[in-house]
Amino acid sequence: MSKKVTKAIFPVAGLGTRFLPATKSVPKEIMTLVDRPLVQYAIDEARAAGIKEFIFVTSRGKSALEDYFDQAPLLEQELRRKGKTEMLEVLKSTNMESGAIAYIRQHRALGLGHAVWCARRLIGNEPFAVMLPDDVIAAEKPCLQQMVEAYAETGGNMVAAMEVPPEQASSYGVLDVSEDRGAIVSVKGMVEKPKREDAPSNLAVIGRYILAPSVLNNLNRMKSGAGGEIQLTDAIAQDIGTKTKVYGYRFRGQRFDCGSKAGFLQATVAFALARDDLRDDLSRYLTEIAQLDKAAQ
Ligand code: G1P
Questions:
Q1: Are residues 271 and 240 in the same domain?
Q2: Phi, psi (degrees; rounded to nearest 5) at 160
Q3: How far is the C-alpha of 286 from the C-alpha of 297, rounded, in Å?
């Protein structure tokens, strides 16, 4: 029986340059999908999976993120006074238990592996999750929860995985599969952002991980990899062939790459269409513009 996973690391130190000028003053993770910041989706998913401690690896200019997780007593008081109980509930659902969140600064942008390593003292000697908030996953059962259930059987290290078009594999960590059991695959190799001709498959790593503490030891060696950065993929790959095996998990759900503008827009539309209060108006509008577009061609 594997140890319970109760800690999650959220690497949020990136500059978000793809979203400039917005990210000049707003951390990317606070940008909203419909009416909730990107990071709230990751937090909710983590909570559903049983995570109790949330570790944010931040950088300069991310104070809005800390404020977001703080309680807002004046706002709550005002909503209570006005009898806006529904909004009050929405607000309360974002409150975090005191002491459940920790912030660690990554002082230099040395890569995802380095960001995770920065949190090593808060993890200690137990398995932990890593969640990349840019990857938003819409799923009936939240993705990390699916993984926690699968991990209870496998132990080791587990990364979320998804087939991508082969020409896109070079944007991801890519798995070399030794045994394909459907949802769970055993991994015999992992390459970060391979050249198209070097990609061992088109099964890509998506930003959800359950990792053994051995990965933190591997990161101690701090070798830089693809793009000159210290890569998490490389540190996980070092466990292959040891007793701590590496598995890929094909999750059920739809993943949006909210690190790109197109992905962010698609997620916005998909999440809005899933909402009772927005669906009708939005789908009418989308049909209208699709017809206009057709007529113009
Ligand atoms: C990171 C990881 C990569 C993974 C990707 C998923 O890359 O390094 O292995 O496939 O997230 O979104 P990034 O997108 O930060 O360059």
A1: no
A2: -70, 145
A3: 17
The whole-number pLDDT of residue 144 equals 98
CA of 132 to the centre of ligand 1 (A): 8
* Domain identity same for 285 and 171: no
Structural domain count, the chain: 2
Ranges of the chain with pLDDT below 70 = 1-2
What is the predicted pLDDT for the residue at 112? 96
Same domain, 214 and 273: no
Which residue's CA lies nearest to atom 13 of ligand 1? 172
Regarding whether 205 and 238 lie in a shared domain, the answer is yes
**For residue 81, what pLDDT is reported?**
93
Domain housing 137: 7-259
Of all protein residues, the one whose alpha carbon is nearest to atom 10 of ligand 1 is 172
Atom of ligand 1 nearest to the CA of 206: 6
In this structure, are 279 and 297 located in the same domain?
yes
Burial of 103 (0-12, 13-18, 19+ CB in 10 A): middle
Number of residues that make up the chain: 297
pLDDT digits (tens, 9 = 90+) for 112-158: 999 999 999 999 899 999 999 999 999 999 999 999 999 999 999 99
